[in-house]
Design brief:
single chain; about 100 residues; about 65% helix; plasmid
């Protein structure tokens, strides 16, 4: 798979799993190719503070994966940070956050 094609898919916000399904290759093969080409890879960075998480999660129409990607972290890191602050990540809890704004 050419580097230009990978760059195009990554710029569109597609993950490794989506790209691998599209080209019928393994997800790890796509990840490996991206690393070899020096293309972006999500890393488990530091989670944002409580206020930023509350504000981001109060927008219940934005998926958790998209919020995590905007902060440059994995969805699991976002969920763990929310759990430690006591911020709900389910639909009902996110609606309550929105109403509390």
């Amino acid at each position: 798979m050419p580097a230009a094609v990978l760059r195009q898919h990554l710029a569109a916000g597609e993950g490794y799993a989506a790209i691998s399904r599209r080209y019928d290759v393994g997800e790890n093969a796509v990840r490996y190719r991206c690393r070899r080409l020096g293309l972006r890879e999500l890393v488990n960075g530091k989670a944002p503070g409580e206020a930023a998480l509350r504000m981001a999660l109060s927008h219940s129409d934005i998926p958790l994966k998209q919020i995590a990607r905007a902060f440059g972290i994995e969805a699991g890191t976002l969920t763990r940070a929310c759990r430690s602050y006591g911020i709900p990540t389910d639909e009902r809890g996110r609606e309550q956050l929105r109403d509390a704004r």
